[in-house]
UniProtKB/TrEMBL annotation:
Keyword field contains Oxidoreductase: no
Family: Belongs to the FGGY kinase family.
Annotated keywords: Kinase, Transferase
Alphabetized PROSITE patterns for the sequence: FGGY_KINASES_2
Membrane listed as a keyword: no
Annotated Gene3D superfamilies: 3.30.420.40
Limits of the Carbohydrate kinase FGGY C-terminal domain: 259-442
Single GO biological process annotation from the record: carbohydrate metabolic process
Name of the featured protein: Gluconokinase
Amino acid sequence: MSKEYVIGLDIGTTSVKAVVFDRCGKVTVESEQLTKSFYPQPNHVEQDPEALTSASVFVLKDAIQKAGVTPDQVAGIGFSCAMHSLICVDENGRALSRAIIWADGRGSDQAERLMSENGLALYEKTGTPIHPMSPLVKLLWMNETGYEPFQRATYFMSVKEYLLLQWFGKRIVDYSMASATGLFNGATLDWDMEILELVNVKKEQLSRPVPPTEILTGLNKIIADYIGIPEDIPFVIGAADGQLANLGSGAILPGEVAITAGTSGAVRQWANGFRANEKHETFCYMFTEETSIIGGPTNNGGIALEWLKNLLNYQGTYEEFTKEAGRVGPGADGILFLPYINGERAPLWNQHARGNFFGMSITHQKEHFVRAVLEGITFNLYQISEALERLAGPSEKIYVNGGLARSPIWLQMMADVFGKNIYVSESHHNAAWGAAWTALVAVGEADSFEDIKNNLPMGEVIVPNAENHKVYQSIYEKYVRLAADVTKYF
């Protein structure tokens, strides 16, 4: 029986998903379990690593059962995972702390001080911006505050590394997850000893870096029996969700940009080698020995829309809520929204940033605010894209994925603001498909990463409205000036 299926396991911030694909990238079945974040103190955001590991076991078992496939039909299983998490682990491989995730801001003071001292020099070596999201800053906070799990820890690892340790008994990390720590030298593809000394961590406390095609077998027998798969089924370590979302959307050539807009958002482009931006505007995370992803993440994607919906106590669906924006034209009759309600990464890299509505009048109604929020999210992505173009050249083709890509109004807004065709994937599981394709490459069932372009189920193409683009260019200039003026108050 041919191995006609491949599985992507995507461990995200809001959910864990297992997606069964056919060899052409068509979704056969998906299983999803929502995850919970904890907020024990202001600016502290954590998740339970045991719950994430259990959710991964559950969705994998559920997806395989729902698909009705047998293990001998599965070519492999690839991992995708959100970046920047950090867990303190004891000598027996058990968690001493919750996973401190990317949204955590407890290290803001350490990040500001580090940036004022030698932060740029560190950034140039790692490609990870100096920001509370990074494990570098989290470790600095732990060391300086006497965080008890840090003092007791034998190892430090991300959520994905912790899962791999529980499932396979191995301490390994792929290049992209390692790159996102701020501890990894992008030029040497190894942990940077100077930075480790800064945070009082030894190299042996970190996992061994490996390429994304590293194959793992010998799955824990209890887990294998529960899922209903053999212990020797090939798992492939894969990469971080950002790199894999680009791969899964086909944005892997020069000039091809992938924009993800879910709870948060990101603008990313494939690149050769390691490139850090001298202005500290973008990240550069390695994927293979030769390739990397450059781009910028934003804290404020769909979360800003969710905030407004809750604030207005809107009882309809999200689809109905976004349709409200269609009742007014571009520019929301003069309202501009700076979407920094959750602090901000790119383009500001300032966790103290805060959102603003500008230009309100007594005539404005809820539809104006809905449109202003959607436009603010889009302008922010456009500003990040401009920074990326200064490093990598102009964007020629834009692929869009994520939860907001389900909104026709927002997709048209994207096309109008960027002034370019927007290519939308048929499925919204780009990271999972990227993980699955990486598994196919690793086990020899696909010849190259580039060949994924022949296996991409594409959806519609959104064409920009030329008149709207002109209007938005004028509004965007005002947005940039306003953002520059307001940031001095953060």
